[in-house]
C-alpha cells in the first residue's frame, strides 16, 4: 500500500527538498504541500494523507496548533520536522498528538524510514530529542500532565504494554518482550490509548515516564 504524505513547511526550498526525497522513495506518494498550518489542515482534510510532515514555526497557524487540530479530529498521523530541538517545542508537539519528532538535519534514509514507521502506527523520536526528554524526566524539571482516570482501569497486560511504550519499544520489540504476537500488541496499544484518552503512542510514552511506569529487568 502506498503511503500518502503531505509536506508542510514555510520555506519553499526546504519543502521542495523534502518532497523530492519522499517522492523518490518506494512506497511513498507526496500528495500535496503547504506553507502554513492553516493550509496544511485544509489540504489534509481535502487530500486525506496518511502522514503530514509538519514544520513547527510557520506564519499564522503554527505547526503545533495544526497538529493538535489534525490529531484531535483523527485525520492523519503527524511527524514533526524542525530545525529546533528546544524542550518547549518537543513537549508542545508531542502533547498536541504528534506521532514523532525529527530534526531537519536527519538523513534522507532515516526520514523515509520515519514516515513509514509513523504510517504503520509506530512512534519516532530523534535520538537528541529522546535524550532531552529522559534528562527532563530524570531531573523532574517538566511539569507532569494530569493523571488520566483510565490509568487505574488498565489490565496488568495493558500496564506492561504502557511500560514498554515508555521504554521506547516498537510493536515488534514489545511482542518479543512480552511473548505475544504483534497483532495482539497493536490491540493492546489501541486499548491503552483509548482508556487513557491519548492520541498517540508517544503521548503514552510520556505519561508512562512521568508516572514512573517502567520496564522491569527481563
TrEMBL record:
Coiled-coil portions: none
A Pfam family per the record: GerE
The Response regulatory domain, residue ranges: 4-119
Highest taxon, organism lineage: Bacteria
One example GO MF annotation: DNA binding
InterPro entries: CheY-like_superfamily, NreC/VraR/RcsB-like_REC, Sig_transdc_resp-reg_C-effctor, Sig_transdc_resp-reg_receiver, Tscrpt_reg_LuxR_C, WalR-like
PROSITE patterns: HTH_LUXR_1, HTH_LUXR_2, RESPONSE_REGULATORY
Domain HTH luxR-type: 147-212
Signal sequence interval, chain numbering: none
An example Gene Ontology biological process: phosphorelay signal transduction system
Protein keywords: DNA-binding, Phosphoprotein, Transcription, Transcription regulation
Name of the protein in its database record: DNA-binding response regulator
Species name: Amycolatopsis orientalis (Nocardia orientalis)
Amino acid at each position: 500500500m502506498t503511503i500518502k504524505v503531505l509536506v508542510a513547511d514555510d520555506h519553499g526550498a526546504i519543502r521542495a527538498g523534502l518532497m523530492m526525497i519522499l517522492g523518490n522513495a518506494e512506497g511513498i506518494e507526496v500528495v500535496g504541500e503547504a506553507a502554513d498550518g492553516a493550509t496544511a489542515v485544509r489540504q489534509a482534510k481535502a487530500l486525506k494523507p496518511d502522514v503530514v510532515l509538519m514544520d513547527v514555526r510557520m506564519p499564522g497557524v503554527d505547526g503545533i496548533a495544526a497538529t493538535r487540530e489534525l490529531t484531535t479530529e483523527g485525520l492523519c498521523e503527524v511527524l514533526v520536522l524542525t530545525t529546533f530541538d528546544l524542550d518547549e517545542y518537543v513537549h508542545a508537539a508531542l502533547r498536541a498528538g504528534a506521532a514523532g519528532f525529527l530534526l531537519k538535519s536527519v538523513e534522507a534514509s532515516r526520514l523515509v524510514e520515519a514516515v513509514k514507521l509513523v504510517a504503520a502506527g509506530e512512534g519516532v523520536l530523534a535520538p537528541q530529542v529522546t535524550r532531552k526528554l529522559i534528562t527532563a524526566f530524570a531531573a523532574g524539571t517538566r511539569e507532569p500532565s494530569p493523571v488520566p482516570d483510565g490509568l487505574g482501569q488498565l489490565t496488568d497486560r495493558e500496564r506492561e504494554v504502557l511500560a514498554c511504550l515508555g521504554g521506547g519499544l516498537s510493536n515488534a520489540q514489545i511482542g518479543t518482550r512480552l511473548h505475544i504476537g504483534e497483532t495482539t500488541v497493536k490491540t493492546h496499544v489501541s486499548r491503552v490509548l483509548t482508556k487513557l484518552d491519548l492520541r498517540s503512542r508517544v503521548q503514552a510514552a510520556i505519561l508512562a515516564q512521568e508516572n514512573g511506569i517502567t520496564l522491569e529487568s527481563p
